[in-house]
Amino acid sequence: GGSAQDWAGRTIFSGAPTMVRLLHVALAGALLFGGADACTNLLVSPGASADKSTIYAYNADSGSLYGSIGLYPATSHPQNATREIWDWDDSVFLGVIPEATETFNVVGNANEHGMVMGETTFGGLPELDSHGTGGIMDYGDLIWIALQRTKRCVDAIKLIDALVQEHGYASDGESFSCVDGNEAWLMELIGKGKFEKGAVWVAQKVPDGAILAHANQARTTTFDQNDPDNVMFSPDVVNFARKIGRYPADASDADFDFSAAYDPVTFSGARHGEARVWDIYRLLLGKTDEAAGKEFEEKYLDYVRGYDLTSGRMPLFLHPPEGSAKFSLTVADAMSLMGTRLEGTWFDNRGIDRPDVGAGSGHSAYRWRPLIWKDTKGDEFVNERTVATQQTSWNFVSASRPWLPPAIRAIQWWAPDDSATSLRVPVYGGITRVPYHFADSVGQLPGAAVSPKDAPKADALNPSWDSAFWIWNLVSNLCYGERAQLVTEALREEMGPLQRDLLDKSVAFEAKVVQEYELAIDESNAAKKKSIAEKATAFCEHEGETAFYKWRHVFMKLFALTRDGFTISKGTTPQCVPGGTNVGCTHRLLPDVAETGYDAGWRDRMASVGEGADRKKAPGGSSCGDECGRFEEHKRLRMNKRRKTKWEAIQSS
Fold first, then answer.
1. What is the distance between the alpha carbons of residues 364 and 354, in angstroms, rounded to a whole number?
2. pLDDT tens across 549-567, in order?
3. How many contiguous H segments (helices) and E segments (strands) does the chain have?
4. Cα separation, 417 vs 53, whole angstroms
5. CB 281 within 8 Å of CB 296
6. Mean pLDDT calculated for residue range 196-206
7. For residue 638, what is the enclosing H or E element?
8. pLDDT tens-digit series, residues 433-447
9. How many whole angstroms separate alpha carbon 84 and alpha carbon 217?
10. Cα separation of 205 and 179, whole Å?
11. Is the predicted pLDDT of residue 613 greater than 70, yes or no?
């Protein structure tokens, strides 16, 4: 019995969880925590994870993308084969480049060798935006080409550099994330605009035992230029800044600050980008050492509020506080961190600790776009940007485990939509078919599409009851608006057991695979490799299908809970059974329909001067005689099909 809470103090499930540990795979267990285009990323080095895997969490935030899982099958290509490049943001054709002879299987953001990649966009200097400059390689294609052609992050970084130098860059500033089981890397890259072809960049490995988060603001400042094992960079990253007047000619190369030169911190960069990193870092530190978490929170508060951009940047990497135990994050922990919404901080906008009309009567943590808006006087105001947000097209938490067979080495716990309200399903990097309800016959890029018979007919505009994207959105949207707090709590009670069950099933499945194929980790054994990939595919299809229908049922339950502004639950009197007794029961089901209405604070607001108080106030006194009050009470009850004394079902004849 009992309940568990996340790092923000939110109850996320009831009942005692079951921790399953098999073959050093520590993915199951208690969910200890929770959770315009923009994204949030979290990278966990092997030394900071509970089972020595590399963990990578990604929220792909966009209001226009259809959240689906793409599939690029492993393929042998003929000599002189080419591939088309389509812009990820604008979905327009950019050009053609030579194809590799062999490409790996890629599902979602993971490949069959355990490498996982993603990004956040920082934009950078407007004059370095390379859209429309003739370059071909956009950031989306760079990710999926690297996944198809490389096994290690260091090789992916080198390939990205080679592609943009040869074919030109077609995007703006990007922070690329990569994990491969042994290492986690951040690569920050920006094009050269109309100045010249190519891009400049810096890549740094996350130190073992540390974590790193980034969110739409370049986080690379100064970097070690004499540590090739841990730091890589383009040869002209400093001199190009000098060439365009962004770094003094006589300044030392060692003092060069990548972000200051190419993506200076602005109000929006701090308030809407760095504040998300701050939220993750303070929670992680606070769970390890409460005092250290509070100290970090206070130290960088003015900076992330955007009020003092000169007070000092947050550290790129987060290490455990001195004298504290090492970080030991699980996949479940990362799920929660990616579902945070600045609860309990200065930014908390739910209208609980202080009035906030934007929270509505349901105390919603969400705000409709735009983030920055003007009142009728022309003054600018700001909505907060949280890690979990409503306009997420898909999100995942991945783990790459080098000790497992290649086909199941990388697992993505994948879901469409909001990372705080979504049940995540298992998707291995080596599966060869996409679970039907999560597939896309058009593809976010053409090469990722599946056959129309293998996907629901749906897109970002046209819904389908068979599309996971639309069902997950239906569930999440119930957690916004006037009943946000009530529905969110009910959702967590539903989601907790379902997520734990999926985590436990994946652990059992992986244990069985390893037991059956003792030598399956040997990549040269093609037959065993293919057999494992097929078993993993069948497992993901089955669990995806089951989760889809369970989540669709959750939507119906939550919708029924708050139908028409009531709070509806099971009544106390049972329904009569045909052919049975008619005593102590009702003919039709009569649920308990509670007139929950609004909380006291919101009622006071509705009654306040200036918000319709004169129109809303009921007259006092009596104008219809001494019995007026009694008549009025009965009238109110009967207008709502109620009585002062509840009609009791006949108990005996």
1. 13
2. 999 999 999 999 999 989 9
3. 15, 25
4. 26
5. yes
6. 98
7. helix 628-639
8. 999 999 999 998 999
9. 30
10. 10
11. no
Residue 25: DSSP 8-state: B
Specify the length of the chain in residues. Answer: 653
* SS3 category, 393: strand
* Predicted confidence band of residue 521 (pLDDT cuts 50, 70, 90): low
DSSP string, 569-613: E--SSPBPPTTS--SSSBSS---EEE-----HHHHHHHTSTTTTH
Residue partners of 395: CB distance under 8 A and separation at least 6: 57, 58, 59, 60, 338, 414, 415, 416, 417, 418, 419, 422, 424
Q: Are 275 and 311 in contact (CB under 8 A)?
A: no
The stretches of 308-432 forming alpha helices (DSSP H) are 331-337
How many CB atoms are closer than 10 A to CB 493? 14
Of the chain, the end-to-end C-alpha distance in Å amounts to 42
- Token digits of residue 140: 């989306």
Q: Residue type at 141?
A: D
User: In Å, how far are 17, 114, 170, 259, 325 from 136, measured between CA atoms?
Assistant: 50, 27, 6, 25, 47
How far, in whole angstroms, is CA 418 from its chain's centroid?
6
Question: What is the biggest distance separating any 2 CA atoms in the chain, rounded to whole angstroms?
Answer: 102
Q: Any residues with CB less than 8 A from the CB of 323 and at least 6 apart, and which?
A: none
One-letter identity of residue 292:
A
User: Any idea which residue has 């009035």 for tokens?
Assistant: 355
> Cα–Cα distance between 555 and 643 in angstroms, integer?
32
- Residues 6 or more apart in contact with residue 40 via CB below 8 angstroms: 58, 59, 61, 120, 213, 214, 215, 216, 276, 338, 387
β partners of residue 397: 57, 413
Q: Give CA separation, 625 vs 621, 628, 629, in Å.
A: 10, 5, 9
Q: Is 622 exposed, middle or buried (0-12, 13-18, 19+ CB in 10 A)?
A: exposed
Cα 72 versus chain centre, distance: 23
Q: Nearest-5° angle of CA 327, CA 30, CA 430?
A: 80
Predicted confidence (pLDDT) per residue in 129-173, tens digit = 999 999 999 999 999 999 999 999 999 999 999 999 999 999 999
Report the predicted TM-score, pTM, of the whole model to 2 decimal places. 0.90
DSSP states of 26-51: ---S--------EEEEEEE-GGGBTT
Residue 375, C-beta contacts closer than 8 angstroms, at least 6 positions apart:
381
Q: How far apart are CA 338 and CA 336, in angstroms?
A: 5
As a whole-number percent, the residues of the chain with pLDDT over 90 amount to 78
Q: Counting Cβ atoms within 10 Å, is residue 641 exposed (0-12), middle (13-18) or buried (19+)?
A: exposed
The whole-angstrom separation of Cα 359 and Cα 446 is: 40
Question: What's the pLDDT tens digit per position in 31-50?
Answer: 333 334 579 999 999 999 99
What sign does the CA torsion over 169, 170, 172, 174 have? negative
